[in-house]
């Protein structure tokens, strides 16, 4: 690809000068990304690996009064001088970010519930109504909770599972604050970005906003006006995911909308940019050297995988191959379309509450049509499993992943299909610590041996919906057990877990070190701890699940390993 290796001159100074005006929260265009603010310097820092984690630089901001244009001019003047030290230059002009949990030290002896209750405050960030000049952080009108570690901003699908925990902790006001924050993002940008950074604005993430509104309405009770209040944002969210749906011919796609061979409308993951991700710039540039795809196509597929939340997984690769074969935009994801079906159902409910007798049945019909299309295209009858649909091969993919639980969670699967999916989960996915994300050990973080809280929760919920209570209880117990073992070992709750190991519970793989905190793990764990305990469990699960809230808890935690 062609990089922006610019020298001092009119073009560079013009680009940097345009960024001098402090950003307003009004539009994406008014919030330039770090690569746009620091042309030339940005590439040098990221490719030169000044920071081990490329996300550090894109989250940094100027440490003094110098504007981006002045910093770039200083860089251009100094970089050719003998003895120039790029790392020292960056240290002089930039203030690196601080991790969300850098100043927090857990007290294992106080117990897991005390730890969880403390973390809601540790991970909360104050409202920031106006953008900070030259910062990549997007403004938000209300306080919000971040995941933790390197993830210092609010993320889209993470936040739903964090909100589950907030609701369980009786923090309904915090749930409402975060729903309002997401609504404000839709109002400003027309969609919810991957996360609240300027460099995330070209893509979204799994669309959980409708489920957030449902959760808020449930938490507030019968008097809640959440469905009516957030109906306009639900409508704009739906428009984003289905835009251009009227244009494609059968078997083709335009941005996020896919017109299936039979004429049905489904959706895919997409990113409006075809450049390397700014937060993983060096990794993407290096990975592009391993692919036969044109660079722009490769970068788009990488970004679309980031939009899926599964970055990265063998799910998106050619069978048995690696990242160089990624083809996210050629797949119709089963999980995404189950979430959009839920959005349609939520819009129908919102229309009904608003007394809109035209829109309510229309959205219900759209949901029925999408459910039928998911069953038609994503159910592999020979395998007895739900997978993504391959637009090129015109058939379901062979990749078996935990995305298959979404049709159970959201009521798309038939009872017979649910039985078959449950059988596969029991035979191919179930491990001592819960369910594998996929049975493939690729070295990617969304593959074996790793497991992630949101998928475990959705699997448990989906299995219970179809009466598979024994398997659901077993998964819930094993997942809580690996969480508690990890807490006893490290004093932390982690982003992901190795569910095959009997020693260390920490997960591995991916582009960055294992993160702690951790928002969605906390939310799911508290939800499972608070769930009614089954009176009968499989033999593997007949042990105490919820640890006591006392200093001797550490001893009890070890007993359930």
From TrEMBL:
Residues 532-561 are annotated as: Disordered. This is Alpha,alpha-trehalase TreA. One of its GO terms (molecular function) is alpha,alpha-trehalase activity. PROSITE patterns: TREHALASE_1, TREHALASE_2. The keyword Signal applies. Residues 532-544 have a biased composition (Low complexity). Residues 1-19 form the signal peptide. Keywords: Glycosidase, Hydrolase, Signal. GO terms for biological process: trehalose catabolic process. Pfam families: Trehalase. PANTHER family: TREHALASE (PTHR23403). Residues 549-561 have a biased composition (Basic and acidic residues). The keyword Hydrolase applies. InterPro entries: 6-hairpin_glycosidase_sf, 6hp_glycosidase-like_sf, Glyco_hydro_37, Glyco_hydro_37_CS. It comes from Hymenobacter polaris.
């Amino acid at each position: 690809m062609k990089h922006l290796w610019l020298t001092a001159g009119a073009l560079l100074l013009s680009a940097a000068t345009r960024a001098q005006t402090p950003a307003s929260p009004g539009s994406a265009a008014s919030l330039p990304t770090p690569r746009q603010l620091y042309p030339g310097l940005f590439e040098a820092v990221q490719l030169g690996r000044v920071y081990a984690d490329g996300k550090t630089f894109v989250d940094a901001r100027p440490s003094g009064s110098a504007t981006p244009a002045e910093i770039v001019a200083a860089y251009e003047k100094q970089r050719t001088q003998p003895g120039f030290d790029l790392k020292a230059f960056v240290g002089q002009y930039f203030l690196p970010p601080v991790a969300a949990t850098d100043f927090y030290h857990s007290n294992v002896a106080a117990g897991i519930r005390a730890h969880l209750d403390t973390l809601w405050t540790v991970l909360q960030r104050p409202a920031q109504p106006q953008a900070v000049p030259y910062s990549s952080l997007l403004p938000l009108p209300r306080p919000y909770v971040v995941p933790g570690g390197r993830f210092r901003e609010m993320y889209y699908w993470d936040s739903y599972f964090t909100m589950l925990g907030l609701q369980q902790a009786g923090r309904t006001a915090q749930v409402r604050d975060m729903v309002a924050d997401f609504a404000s993002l839709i109002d400003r940008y027309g969609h919810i970005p991957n996360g609240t950074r300027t460099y995330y604005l070209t893509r979204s993430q799994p669309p959980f906003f409708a489920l957030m509104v449902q959760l808020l309405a449930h938490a507030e009770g019968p008097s809640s006006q959440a469905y009516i209040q957030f109906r306009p944002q639900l409508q704009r969210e739906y428009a984003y995911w289905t835009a251009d749906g009227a244009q494609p011919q059968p078997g083709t796609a335009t941005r996020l909308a896919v017109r299936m061979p039979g004429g049905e409308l489904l959706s895919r993951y997409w990113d409006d940019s075809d450049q390397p991700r700014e937060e993983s710039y060096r990794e993407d540039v290096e990975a592009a050297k391993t692919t036969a795809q044109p660079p722009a196509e490769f970068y788009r597929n990488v970004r679309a995988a980031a939009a899926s939340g599964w970055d990265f997984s063998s799910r998106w690769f050619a069978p048995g191959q690696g990242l160089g074969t990624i083809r996210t935009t050629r797949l119709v994801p089963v999980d995404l379309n189950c979430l959009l079906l839920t959005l349609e159902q939520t819009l129908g409910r919102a229309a009904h509450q608003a007394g809109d007798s035209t829109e309510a049945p229309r959205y219900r019909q759209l949901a029925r049509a999408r459910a039928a299309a998911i069953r038609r295209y994503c159910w592999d009858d020979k395998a007895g499993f739900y997978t993504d649909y391959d637009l090129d091969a015109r058939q379901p993919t062979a990749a078996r992943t935990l995305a298959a639980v979404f049709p159970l969670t959201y009521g798309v699967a038939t009872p017979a299909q649910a039985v078959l999916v449950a059988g596969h989960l029991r035979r191919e996915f179930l491990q001592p610590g819960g369910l594998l994300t996929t049975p493939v050990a690729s070295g990617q973080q969304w593959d074996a041996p790793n497991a992630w809280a949101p998928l475990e929760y959705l699997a448990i919920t989906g299995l219970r919906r179809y009466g598979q209570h024994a398997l659901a209880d077993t998964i819930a117990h094993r997942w809580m057990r690996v969480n508690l073992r990890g807490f006893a070992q490290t004093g932390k709750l982690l982003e992901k877990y190795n569910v095959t190991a009997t020693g260390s519970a920490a997960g591995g793989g991916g582009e960055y070190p294992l993160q702690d905190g951790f928002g969605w793990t906390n939310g799911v764990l508290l939800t499972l701890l608070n769930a009614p305990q089954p009176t009968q469990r499989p033999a593997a699960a007949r042990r105490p699940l919820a640890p006591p809230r006392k200093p001797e808890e550490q001893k009890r935690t070890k007993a359930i390993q």
